Amino acid sequence: MHANDGExxxxxxxxxxxxxxDPALRATIVSIIWLDSSPDWDELRARLDxxxxxxxxxxxxxxxxxxxxxxxxxxxxxxxxxxxxxxxxQAPSPANASAVLEIARTDAMTSFDRVRPLWKATLVxxxxxxxxxxxxxxxxxxxxxxxxxxxxxxxxxxxxxTTHRDEASAPKSDRHGLLPASIANDVVxxxxxxxxxxxxxxxxxxxxxxxxxxxxxxxxGTVTSIAETVAPVSNALSPIMQExxxxxxxxxxxxxxxxxxxxxxxxDATLNDAFLAAVTGGLRRYHxxxxxxxxxxxxxxxxxxxxxxxxxxxxxxxxxxxxxPVADVNPASRMHKIDKQARRARNARSLPFTNAIAFxxxxxxxAVAGSMLxxxxxxxxxxYGPQFPLYLAGAKVTAYTAFGPTMGCAANLTxxxxxxxxxxxxxxxxxxxxxxxxxxxxxxxGFAEVLALGKPxxxxxxxxxxxxxxxxYRSPNDLPADAEK
Length: 485
Prior knowledge:
It is an enzyme of class 2 (transferase). The chain is α+β, with helices and mostly antiparallel strands and 485 residues long.
């Protein structure tokens, strides 16, 4: 699971890295691991330290070439200090879930220290008495949602009893000069792109002779798809979510996974379709509450291009933009329309050219390339997590919430399923969404609308109240008789 010291960023990661010259486009992921008690502090820090030894990327910092002459690379931080990356604090007043969300909110709005590895973890203790939460902050270039799930075995146990892990040795640096190596890397990457294009062209010749009409149609389709991928967005489709700023609001919505699956099945749709239908239903209500209507909204959806042998410490997604129906009040009908659009995005002809596109965009000024991301109405993604309880240094993980970066959108909505529940983390740009509380309540209503298709046995879980932990926590009486408490 090691990454190589001195490894260069993929072009897509370099693109997001350089876009951070505009603070509105920061690629910071914040997650909250909610715990039923305080974990063993020494064990927790040892776990994170050992994980950083095995996943070298978590001990590396980014080194940039001068004047953006080439691609940045990851190099070992020779001054790595685990005590800087892993901290322990008492929950500030009112010492409840809202206090934890405020800590996560601050992390989401704060830039990384670029001379250190791009992650940090804060254990928050004394939450609602003896509960706790681990707030993790990671740059998107280190990993994506699926990659984070592959990292889980290094941190978590399947019972309260901690499992011994052999301590790995600290990685050592073997890097050479940055600029010559960077230029050499870019030459190699460019040669590969040219070779790949040439190979495609050579293969296209016989295909053109056999079927010229189809070949021309495919070529036009590929060019059109690439053009759609890089086209700038001049205005948001929402008439009321036009502004963009730097302040963020974090919140969460939790529903039962079985209920959402049942609703999707009732409409002969996928779980992702049901999720997006709930979101668009909520956004329709939010616009209605502000005295306006909208037919469609533009979404950015991460599409995974991860392969089985890709390292966990890597970002293997590409961002696709497309329009989704909002005005349709029938959730089942809306799901079918969404499914058609989402499938088109996942099968876009531009996907194989993701790295080549990013390589070209890296050469453009930040403002020009960033126009591709800004003015998109929302970003939505879903990650399927473990459907069984996990334990962290002796404490039970009762909920797991991820808050993705807005990256120029009005809001990011990330669904992470864990142990039978879907936890939707909301990262809201407060300049775009002027009434975050109403926005969240409208989203809850959107989920209720979709869940009604499956006639769920339980109502949508109510929001967090002051002095209360997320409603996804279950009391001991709600656990199966054979479950460990």
